[in-house]
Specification:
7 copies of one chain form a homoheptamer. By secondary structure, chain A is mainly β. In chain A, strands 5-6-2-3-4-7 form a 6-stranded antiparallel β-sheet, with no helix packed on it. The first copy, chain A, starts with a strand and ends with a strand. At the F-G interface, β1 of F face β7 of G. β1 of chain D pairs antiparallel with β7 of chain E. Chains A, B, C, D, E, F, G: GO terms for molecular function: ATP binding; metal ion binding; protein folding chaperone; protein-folding chaperone binding; unfolded protein binding. Chains A, B, C, D, E, F, G: Keywords: Chaperone, Cytoplasm. Chains A, B, C, D, E, F, G: Belongs to the GroES chaperonin family.
């Protein structure tokens, strides 16, 4: 199932980072903060001067967007306005 | 009874997916989450560059739109702005 | 008494449908949901490309508009924006 | 004391209708609903295509406007936008 | 101390009217309703077609504006938009 | 440390007036109302026709702006829109 | 990991000042007020006439922006509109 965002929206895959306590114990998902990093999976109709493309990693407003499942995986459909920054490795 | 949406609205038929527990038991409607997938049944006056047409499957904001019954079936009249993405099978 | 809506408003007469329980008992008005269907009785100054005219049946946002009585009958003065769709019999 | 509304406002005199119970008892003012009918007493600077003039009877949004007393009589200064319809006897 | 309002604002001096009970007892200030009448003391930069000038008496929205004391006297700095009407004696 | 406001903002120094009770007792700061008078210390990029300049005394909306300390002194960074009037001695 | 803000946003590093009680005791972080001073680390697409650049120190609205960690250090991604002033040493 391919999901094509409409208008100035993007489909992103949140990056859940392994969190360890000081003692090295990996925190369960629930105890982790909502992820703020994600990878762009699909884009809608973005402005021409927008520097984002499929595959880029971004920082996004973690309280925004609509969570959806595609083939049992978690994704978010989010407005361009809620993408705060691009991560340049 | 044919319902023709006005302005930038669409008439959609929610797609309710069968939900099974891990043990394979089909969940009753009430226990299911509000559907987010739907099929477009009728469109109002959409912008020319809008990629949506009758028959397309979409993902929509499940808390938006107005629920109506037509011949005892559930439909939703929804603003174009609350259609998040198009599903390309 | 003739009531002529001002601006982009319409005067509509709600269509209250008889509701029967499974056992065929007609529900009293109070138990019924607020009607969503109505007939257009009078129009104000609507945009030229608006497809609505006196006599048309419509679906409207049941929480909108202002209820008024004219000669002891119930009517609603409502903004064009709260008319969701036109019913084509 | 003459009161000249400013901008797109009108000075209206609410029409309080005598209300009788089924048994014909005239309801005291307090038991009555807020009036929705009024007569236009004075107008501010209304748009040229506005069909309203002093003396016209109108239906207005009963929760809008500012109540004032002029020579012990009740009036309301109200925005044009809160006048819903014109009554044509 | 002269106070010159900025932008589309006015400096007004509320007119507190003596209120007498039916029995002729003058009500203390506290028991009185907030005044709605005032005289214009100073104006800021008003639109050219605005009919108001220093000395005019007006009716204003009693919940608007900012109360200030100048030489122990009460004044209000208020937006033009909250002046509802002009009083023509 | 010199603070240069950005955009249509000003840096102002509130003028705290000595308040005496009827009996002549100087009120402690806490008992005083928030000051509404201030002097302009620095301006950002104000519109050309704006009559305000460094050194002017003004009346401002006491619930607006952001309080900051510069060298242990209290200042406020405030939007031009929240400056209500200019004081002309 | 390099973070490039999108649109009219900036990446800033809050400046946490050592706070001492009257008796000279350094306050723990928690007891301190949220910082209002910061240094600009990276800028997005700012207007041409904007006087801010990487390295500048600024005063910002401490309740705005999104806190993020980069290599265990605290940063904030903030809208240009929430930068109140530039500090000129």
């Amino acid at each position: 199932m391919k999901v094509k965002p409409l208008g100035e929206r993007l489909l992103i895959k949140p990056i859940v980072e392994e969190k360890k306590t000081a003692g090295g114990i990996v925190l369960p998902d629930a105890a982790k903060e909502k992820p703020m990093k994600a990878q762009i999976v699909e884009v809608g109709k973005l402005p021409e001067d927008c520097p984002l493309k499929v595959g880029d990693k971004v920082i996004f407003n973690k309280y925004s967007g609509t969570e959806i499942k595609i083939d049992e995986e978690d994704y978010i459909i989010i407005d361009l306005n809620d993408i705060l920054a691009k991560i340049e490795e």
